[in-house]
Structure formats: C-alpha cells, structure tokens
Prior knowledge:
Elements: E1 5-8, E2 13-16, H1 17-34, H2 39-48, H3 53-77, H4 83-110, H5 113-145, H6 151-155, H7 163-170, E3 176-179, E4 184-188, H8 189-206, H9 211-222, H10 226-250, H11 256-276, H12 282-309, H13 312-350
Antiparallel strand pairs: 1-2, 3-4
Helix pairs in contact: 1-3, 1-11, 1-13, 2-3, 2-12, 2-13, 3-10, 3-11, 4-8, 4-10, 5-12, 8-9, 9-10, 11-13, 12-13
Amino acid sequence: MNIFNIYLPVAGIEFSVLLLILIGFCVGVLGGFFGVGGGWMITPALNIFGFHMAFAIGTPLADIFGQSIGAVRKHHRMGNVDWKLGFVSIISSVIGVEIGSRVILEMEKVGDVGSVVRWCYIVLLSALGSYMMYDYFSTHPRHKGSADVSSKSAEKIRPGGTKVSEKLHRINLPPMISFPASGIQGVSVWIILLVFLITGFLSGFMGVGGGFIILPVLVYLIGLPTTIAVGTSLVTVLFTAAYGCFTYALKGRVELLAAFIMLIGASIGAQVGATAIKYIKGYGIRLLFAIMVIFASLSVLTEQFYKMAGKHIFQQLAGIVLMGTALAMSALIIGKLTLESRKDGTSSRQN
C-alpha cells in the first residue's frame, strides 16, 4: 500500500489522498471561475482512477455542494448572482435530480450503466464545446472591430442577444416573470422551469451539479450577461448538488471520506477561481469554457475506448488528458489572476 493511499470504506477501494486533493483544487478553481460544480470532471476522473460509476456519480455531489457554498458567497459579494432566478430554479431542479438518480439505479441493476453515462458525457460535452467555439469565432470579431462599442456593452448579453433567446422571450405563455438583476423583462415561467428540470435530471443522471449545461443555457437561451450567468448557475448547482448528495447517500452511493478530502482542495480553489473572473471578460470566459469541455469529452472518449478494447494505454491517456487539461486551465486562471493583481497593486502605489 502506498503511504499516500487510504482505504475508502463505502466504495471499498484504496485511493491516493494527494490525487483527491489535486482533483478538488482544480475543480474548485474551475468551478469558481466558470460557475460549474465540477462534476463533469470529478465523475470521469474518479471513474478513470478506480471508482465504480455509481460511486463516481454520487460522491462528487457532496464535494460540489461544499465548494459551491464558498463560491456563491464570493460571487454574491461581487454582484454576480440573480437570487430570484436562482431560487426559481430550485423548484424543478430537485425533481429532475430525483428522476435522474432513480434512472441510474435502475440501469445499474440491468446493465453497464458506466458506458451509457460516458457516451452521454461525450455527446453533451463535445456538442456544447463545439457550439461555444463557433459562437466565439463567429461573434467575437465583431466586438473587437467595433470602435464605438464599449467593452461593457460588448460583453453584456441582453434579452434577444441570440436568435434562440429572442424567440423564447416572445413565447407568451403566462405566467410571465421578470429578473431585474439580469436585465430580463418578461419570460414565461414555464420555460425557466423546463430548463432547470432538464439540468436537474442531468445532475442526478450524470453526477454533475448541472453547471456545465446551465451556464451556456443561461447565456444562449435565457440571455443573461456572462458574469451573472456564472454566479447564478452556482446557486442552482448548490441546491441540486445538495439534494443529489442527499438522495445518493440514502442509496449508499456516496463516499463521504473522499468527498471531504477533495473539499479541502476545492474550498481553496473556489475562492481563487471566483476572484479571477473579474479580470477576464465574458467572451474570454466562454472561449476557455469551450476549450475545457472539448478536452474533457476527449478524455471520456479515451476512457470508453479502454472499456471496449481493454488496453490500459487508453486508460492512462484518458487520465493524462483530463488532469492535464484541468491543471493547464487552472494554471492559466491563477496566472492571469496573479498578473492582474500585481498590476492593480502597482497602480495603487503609483496613485
């Protein structure tokens, strides 16, 4: 037994403490910065490194809940949270989480649930990443080339900012609801409930807080400014992860010891990520997010090749791609934060 390995009694396996802390820290940085819980990374990582898929789904929800508390508080102080929208999301999110978790447990009884979940990750992550890359390269150059458009107006996405959000805002299906903090005036409450029912289902089915799908949904479908979408998605992640952790724990699929160890790193990383967001504009956030999820989908695809072919080189490559992407993105965010903080410090001394 490696001196850094511990026995996890619920999952029934040995696992590296250092790896758990490292995963937690990276997830904290990325979660605080992008407004995602990080389950999209923790679940594949735990599965790749030895967790059974059911535990790899249930365990991250406990860690996501813990880290989201600090990240939400940080974004609230920065004015990036639409609390009204966040609380409305809870109504249908918890229903979706329960449906998703029950589907997983039923599938676990009859077949290879891991393969199904991995393919869901591959399709969703690659589709989201590809669309956001397309949006960045097709839309961002217009912002850079407009001399008369301020950076603030370029970054902020108002209702009607995309063709899809404009169409959704025109659906007059009472009751209608407004979200002044996000600049949203009049959208059908049924659309909001449906969006969060779907993201709640994904949370329960895939072991994610739902943030990796909520962020682009809030930006492209609902029309929120990017920074407010980040903070608000974390509110939804907080409550869906809390309920998801509760329901999976009742079903005996949460390894609390592993979640607690990951939370040590995540609690530090979340503060770093949430602070860094004020130094990177909305389109920069979306580009980094797109790159991150595309590499995450490649990692899960490589893991699926390992399951099908049985060659350990694929499993090792999957771990390298996933952790390499997380470490590189975390280093980039921390580097940007450090650089801009030094500039602010220099400016303050000169003034």
